[in-house]
């Protein structure tokens, strides 16, 4: 969601992070950081998009992956 100013939303997760190589039919190539959440079970008190319902899977049964936004930040432990 675009904002006219910097907005930081932090959460702790057990996601695995990958760099995915993408290519278009015209030969354009890019790499995109991707996070795969092992468990998307809703947590009390945290706004939740019922992604498992949209995907037709049971919460916690499959990992759910998504690309990170172009200007997104990711902090992780070594």
Automatic annotation (TrEMBL):
InterPro entries: BURP, BURP_dom. Keywords: Signal. Residues 1-78 form the BURP domain. Pfam families: BURP (PF03181). PANTHER family: BURP DOMAIN PROTEIN USPL1-LIKE, BURP DOMAIN-CONTAINING PROTEIN 7. This is BURP domain-containing protein.
